[in-house]
Design goal:
It contains 14 helices and 12 strands. It has helices at residues 30-34, 61-68, 78-91, 111-114, 120-123, 133-146, 196-205, 210-216, 219-224, 229-237, 241-265, 275-280, 282-291, 327-336, and strands at residues 3-8, 13-19, 22-25, 42-47, 57-58, 96-101, 152-157, 163-168, 171-175, 270-274, 308-310, 319-323. A 6-stranded mixed β-sheet has the order 3-2-1-4-6-5, sandwiched between helices. The longest helix is centred in the last third of the chain and has 25 residues, at 241-265. The protein is globular.
Length: 340
């Protein structure tokens, strides 16, 4: 199968024409991609929230209605994806179109890890869904090929949005994002985990749009005024106090959350970094490894190269890897596995 993958973020759009061998072409725009009538067999859309769907789905009117009803659970991400689906269906009704969901990889999480301690009437709707599942799924797939003996993984998808996933035997058993993509780690502009009492207090005692602040004005940006980890690290090098605090808060949440993921797994065989920050910042990886030395994590220079690099240093009992995020290939792989 050759497919156009449409990966809509909250403020970004990644387009690729791919086949199982990799990227064939990266269109400059959606218009460019849709103007090539014979280039693709399918159009595959990344959709952040798929509810309880465990696998991709072919797009029809009923599915669009279902996904639109989930918009309030992912208000930054769902609307752009639905708009692009509408454009592609209008322009290319002759091409089969599919949705691949970030939540699907996490439908294997056991009930104890996805259930909140709230009344049953609320639990029908409010539970941990998890996100970044396409990225976590690709990293897991590549690790089964490169290091099949590593059965217990902690995958750290670190980017503008960030989450951890505890993986046992290829299946998600815990993740740090819960009911919405606001939860868990400190992110570029998102706060991550926050006492629900604090959210209620803010809603009652300020006249600000609390969701707007938690989504777009918090995280690294709220801590030091910069959302870009590269800038934060540069400022730390210059001993900027607010940047040093931001980095320390970020690492504290990251390392303690990794500890929780290891506890859920009953141990860990490999720590896997992916995502823009996870792949691009050796400094952040080193700082994380230093704080996990007690666990047996010791990172050194890369040794494999290609899309998977091993960073495990001598004396480590936990292996460390970097996996290049290829959501486009995971989207193609998951749709290709569907019955057609």
């Amino acid at each position: 199968m050759r497919a156009l993958t449409v990966n809509a973020g909250s403020t970004s759009l990644k387009l690729a024409i791919v086949d199982p061998t990799g990227t064939i072409h990266e269109p400059a725009s959606l218009e460019d991609a849709l103007a090539r009538p014979h280039d693709v067999d399918a159009i595959i859309h990344r959709v952040v929230h798929g509810g309880d769907r465990p696998r991709p789905a072919r797009i029809d009117d009923a599915l669009v209605t279902e996904l639109d009803a989930l918009t309030e659970l992912a208000p930054l991400h769902q609307p752009p994806a639905l708009e692009l689906i509408a454009q592609c269906r209008a322009r290319r009704p002759d091409v089969s179109q599919y949705a691949v969901f970030d939540t699907s990889f996490h439908t294997s999480i056991p009930p104890a890890a996805r259930t909140y301690a709230i009344p049953e009437r609320w639990r029908r709707h409010v539970r941990s869904y998890g996100f970044h599942g396409i990225s976590h799924g690709w990293a897991t797939h590549r690790m089964t090929e490169v290091a099949p003996a590593a059965r217990r993984l902690v995958v750290a998808h670190l980017g503008g949005g960030s989450s951890l996933c505890a993986v046992r035997d290829g299946r998600s058993v815990m993740t740090t994002m819960g009911f919405t993509p606001l939860d868990g780690l400190v992110m570029a502009t998102r706060a991550g985990a926050l006492d629900p009492g604090a959210v209620l207090w803010l809603a009652q005692h300020t006249d600000e749009d609390v969701l707007q602040v938690l989504e777009r004005e918090s995280g690294l940006l709220g801590l030091c005024g910069d959302a870009d980890m590269r800038v934060v690290l540069d400022r730390c090098h210059d001993n900027d106090p607010s940047a040093l605090l931001a980095l320390d808060v970020y690492l504290h949440r990251l390392v303690t959350s990794i500890g929780s993921a290891v506890a859920a797994l009953g141990g860990v065989d490999a720590l896997v970094f992916t995502g823009g920050v996870g792949e691009g910042s050796s400094r952040l990886r080193d700082l994380t490894a230093e704080r996990l030395d007690w666990l047996g994590v010791r990172a050194g220079p890369a040794s494999l190269g290609g899309d998977v690099s091993e960073l495990t240093a001598a004396g480590a009992s936990v292996r460390t890897f970097v996996v290049a995020a290829r959501e486009d290939l995971e989207m193609l792989r998951s749709v290709s596995a569907m019955p057609h």
